[in-house]
Amino acid sequence: MDLSDWFKGFEKGIARLSSEQRAAFFSECSKNCVDGGVLSIYRKLYKDANGDMDVFFQMADELPGVKSEIVEKGRVYHLIFLECTCGLCKKGYVTTPLLCECSRQSVLYSLQNLWKEQKFRVTLCHSILQGGQNCKIKIELI
Question: How many domains does the chain contain in total?
C-alpha cells in the first residue's frame, strides 16, 4: 500500500469528526509539528520584541513567506502565510482543507506558549487548501 492511499482513509476519518474532536486531535499534532521548528523562530521574535505583541507582529512581517498585519494595536492581528508549509500537503498526501485546523492550532499553541498569561482566539479566515491565494489567520486577545 502506498502512503497516499493510507492518507485517503485519514482524510475520510477526520471528515467524520466533529469540529471539537478535530480541534482536540489537531491540537496534539500541531504541538509536535511546531515544537520541531517554527516555535524556535517565534521564541526568537518574542525575545527580540521583549514580549511586546505589536513589535512581535511587526517583526513577523519580515519573515520569509509571512505577512503580518496589526488590525488593532494590542488586540487583533493577522498572520498571512504566502504558501502552505505543511509537509503532508507539499508531498500531496493530504488535500482536504480540514487539515488547516492543524495550522490554526499551531498558531494558538505557539502564542499560548509565548504569552502564558494571555488568552487568544485564533480563527482561520481562509487557506490555500480552501482555494485561497494564501492562508490568513486572525488572532484576537480575549
Answer: 1
